[in-house]
Every structure is written in C-alpha cells, then in structure tokens.
Amino acid sequence: MDQIVIRGGRPLSGEITASGAKNAALPVMASVLLGDGDYELSNIPRVVDIHTMAELLRRLGVGAQWADNRLILSVRGIERCEAAYELVKTMRASIMVLGPLVARWGQARVSLPGGCAIGARPVNLHLMGLRKMGAEITIAHGYIEAKASRLHGATIALDQPTVTGTENLMMAATLAQGTTVLDNAACEPEVVDLATFLNQRGARISGAGSRRITIEGVDRLSGGLHRYTIISDRIEAGTYLIAGAITRGRLAVRGCRPEQLEAVMGKLEAAGVVLRKEAGRVMVEGPPRPTAVDAATAPYPGFPTDMQAQFMALMAVAKGQSLISELVFEQRLTHVAELQRMGAQIQVQGVHAKVQGVEQLSGAPVMASDLRASAGLVLAGLVADGESRIQRVYHLDRGYERMVEKLQAVGAAIERVSGERARVGRQPEAGAGP
Ligand code: EPZ
After folding, report:
1. I need a labelling partner for 48 at 20 to 30 A (CA). Which of 19, 140, 290, 349 fits?
2. Model pTM greater than 0.90?
3. Ligand 1 nearest-atom number relative to CA 328
4. Average pLDDT over residues 165-177
C-alpha cells in the first residue's frame, strides 16, 4: 500500500493552487438527476470521491465523460433508482442522490451510509425533511426506500444546520408542488454554489447562504446544455495556508477566497501568521514560531471542522497552550494519537484537546484515519525533524488532488512511495519527482 514519505524542515515558497471544491462538486453532480440535459462542469477535482459519485451516476444511467478537469454528464432519463451499499459505504455523500431521485422520478432506493470514523453521522434530518414534503419512507435491509407521486412544499426546521441535509432537501424542494422553507439551514459556500447552479437551470431558490432558504417548486428544470464552473476548495486552500505557516515559509495560495475562510484566517493571524490578500490569491508568511490560540469548530461561518486537524498540527509547535474543541463531530480527534507519536504534547478530554506546543516535532511512521486527519499529519511531517511515513494515504486521495506534486513544486521534500519501495524505506530528496 502506498505511503507518503516526508523529510521535514524546509520552508515552502512559491505559488500553490487550490483545485475545485470536492464538497461543492458532489451535490452539483447529484443534482443533474433532477432533469434531462447535458452538464459541462468545470474545475472538478480529480479525487476519489468525485470518481465514486461519477460511478454512482453511471449506474443510474447517466453518461459521464472527462475532458481535463471538465466533467460532462448527460441525462436522458434514468435506468434505475438504486444507490447500492457497495458504493455508498465508500462515500456517505452518495446520500445526496436520494432527494433528486424521489423528487424527479418518484422513487429511490439508497443504502444507509452506516458508521464513520469521525462520528455517528445519522441522516435522520434528511429523512425527516423528505417526509415533511410527503415522501413515504421505509428502511429495510439497510436501505432507505422512498416513494412520492409528487413532493409538496413544507416548512422544515433543522435541529442542526446539516450541510448535505440542506443540499438534499433543497434539491428535492426544487421540483415540489408549492414552496418549501428550510429553517436553520447550512450556509456553507458549497450550499450557495449548488443553489446558483440550480437557479441557472430554472429553479427558484432564495436565501442560500443564510439560515433560511426558500424554494418555490417548479414543474421542471430547463434541459439542453448547461456549463458551470465549481468554486475553488476553501478547505484545500486553508490546508496550504497552514503549510506555508508551519514551515515558516512564504507561499502564495491561488484560488484562496478570504471571504470564505475568515474564521481560519482570523485564528492564523492571532497566532502571528502574516496573511496578505492579493488578486486571486492569499500570501502567507510563517512566523519563527506561532503563538498558541484556542479554536472550537462550528457550522459555517464558524471555524470549520474540516480544518481542525490541520490547525492542531500548527498548534502542536506553537508557543504556549491552546484548547481545540471539536463541537461538530463527536469522534474527530483520532489524529491526536498519531501527532503524539511525533512528539506532540496533547491531552484529550472528551471532544476537547489541550495542546501544549513543543519546539520541535520528530518524524515518525504514522497512520491516517480519515481525510482531514491525513492532511494534518502531512503538515506535521513538513515541520518535523527527520522522516515521517504516512500510511493509509487512500484517505488523502479522497479529497486532495495531486497534493504530493503540488507540495514538491513549492520545495517540500515529499514523495509518494508504493508497495516494495514503501516497505524498504527509501529517503526522498528535496522537490524529488515521483
Ligand atoms: C459535510 O458533511 C461535509 N461533507 C463534511 O466534509 C463536513 O465535515 C461536514 O459537512 C461539516 O462541515 C460534504 O459536504 C460531502 P453535517 P455532512 O450533516 O453534511 C449531525 C470532508 O472532510 N447530523 O453538516 O455529512 C451530524 O452527525 C467531509 O470533506 C444529524 O444529526 O455533515 C454532525 O454532528 C468530512 N442528522 C452535524 O449534524 C442528520 O441528518 C453536522 O453534520 C445530519 C447531520
């Protein structure tokens, strides 16, 4: 199995570009099920989760073709309404075909996603909302079975501003009879990107980006050819801001939109990181040593849970003690034990981690447990003394496009090694090619 091998201690410099946003592309792809037509989607990251969604759509009868980072999806009716366990178990976001299928085709059979490394992650709010719109939903043999002749508008108050729940219900409401109001909705930029795409196709969505979204149902969305460019990935951009900061480097992150990363950039500046907004990019300059700052994760516009592990890596080498609280997912501190293997001083109490910064981390073999945890370990490896070996990098492949190549291009001594070479442990050279 592949490993990522890093020799730490090199300041990064130059420019690195964030790819398109995985978490915007996934719902936009699922939404093509709402109507026949051709969809030319640009700035789509070539990561595993995107390939999984494309495969899921293919199995439903959607044509899918790649042309560089453009994905062309063609819908001419669908062949079946089932999302199989085999695919859904590899990617929970598959649940987002449920709303479009039942809204457009009147039925859906979608595997329940099951457990996840970062928390229970139930989908009760997705189902509650669809039931409120008149869907008949049963759960049997691990599958959600949903039926509806036509959904109707409803007022839905969400206990939690669930991101994919908001997206699923917004898509379903697009074709419902009447008006739907989503209260306590998620207002992540990815939700706004989906609403913009749907409105371009004739939907009537207002309020996306706020806690109250109103959707006036229409009979159908317009067909034909739709071109759309996905927003850049704010989490990937945030990860690279920290890469520049933690290596005491001087890095420009292209595609980083400050207005989407205010909470993260605020914490970085409080930690002594210099950030300068420039046209289409943000310059980051890492301080000799960052200062400890507390952070607690929250739904957007709060501090993103998808940046928690990366920020913890920075706090592990900060001056002083910080408290990092994971308040969105109940089990998203599994990276702590791996950071401790690298010499980090971290105490966990429930969902809180007290991080006593150390002068220097030391390279070590570590294990990735989920997508963002693996990004946090890569960042720790970039600053650690000596060599780090990150195993289970398939987690990283799910959401970071060409991370190793991008970091090599700005001076990191990082390499991906596979099979035998992973076993014998060859040293990577600075900027070494694959
Ligand atoms: C989205 O997941 C993202 N995934 C996640 O990114 C991200 O961590 C998360 O939002 C929070 O920002 C995609 O967009 C594909 P939620 P989602 O529903 O929608 C509870 C990454 O690294 N909840 O907003 O699944 C839930 O348990 C991934 O790219 C219910 O209780 O997250 C959690 O505690 C990981 N019932 C909270 O809400 C429900 O029906 C927020 O989860 C739904 C959610």
Report:
1. 140
2. yes
3. 34
4. 98
